[in-house]
Design brief:
With about 230 residues, the chain is mostly helical. Helix 3 packs antiparallel against helix 4. The longest helix is centred in the middle third of the chain and has 39 residues. The chain is elongated, with a radius of gyration of 20 Å. The N terminus is likely disordered.
Length: about 230
């Protein structure tokens, strides 16, 4: 019974990690593509404010979606450490540390997102500002949130490079999944540093984000369907 339990435990960890990965992908894409992209118009504070107040419930759901994504990321960092520490305990711990740092940054960064709603809802201290000033401040906080998100992705990219390396070296998964995670990491790092260093070129590299989507979704589905290869 003990041997059987030890054999099936990695499968359980893999399936739970796959489920959490799916949650991260679904809620991450939903909050970015279907919520923020539809409400926030960078460079137009007035339109952004109008959109948010007309769809306040949707804007608040964006906060919830990102919160669920961050909480799932914390749990999945631990699960990946458990699954891959047999390859290299030091590298697995380092990957987990970078991923947890990303989660901490994104979690704290949600305050920037919510600050926009506090301003637009006319809290007491907001009465010191005119309407157009409030709109501008709200858009500033949303822009800070956008930059904070990409700051977190720098740590996520580093985590993915290490994670991909561990997957390639591991007997648990096909090596191509690891190379996909490394490619995704390169895209995340390129996109984030472009935003901070060459913001005028951000739109040019947006199409390459299809690489992380394919790579991470493939890994997610493998975890859910196949789990891990368990040696006797």
């Amino acid at each position: 019974m003990t041997a059987r339990t030890a054999e099936t435990s990695p499968l359980i960890y893999a399936r739970v990690a796959g489920f959490l990965y799916l949650i991260i992908i679904v809620f991450g894409i939903s909050s970015e593509v279907f919520i923020r992209s539809s409400l926030i118009v960078m460079g137009d504070a007035s339109t952004t404010a109008t959109n948010i107040m007309k769809s306040e419930g949707l804007f608040r759901f964006g906060f919830v979606a990102d919160s669920i994504m961050v909480l799932s990321d914390v749990a999945i960092a631990i699960l990946f450490y458990i699954l891959l520490k047999s390859v290299s305990k030091t590298l697995a711990l380092t990957a987990a540390a970078f991923r947890l740092t990303q989660a901490a940054i994104l979690g704290f960064n949600l305050l920037n997102y919510y600050a926009a709603l506090l301003l637009l809802n006319g809290v007491e201290y907001a009465t010191a500002f005119k309407s157009d000033q409030l709109n501008a401040l709200a858009l500033l906080f949303l822009d800070m949130h956008r930059h904070g998100y990409d700051l977190g992705l720098i740590f996520f990219g580093l985590s993915n490079i290490i994670l991909g390396t561990l997957v390639v070296k591991s007997h648990h998964f096909p090596g191509i999944l690891g190379y996909g995670l490394i490619a995704a990491a390169v895209v995340y790092l390129t996109g984030s540093f472009t935003l901070f260093l060459f913001p005028d070129y951000v739109a040019l590299i947006e199409p390459i984000y299809i690489v992380p989507l394919i790579a991470e979704l493939s890994f997610c589905l493998w975890l859910l369907i196949k789990g891990v290869k368990v040696r006797p």
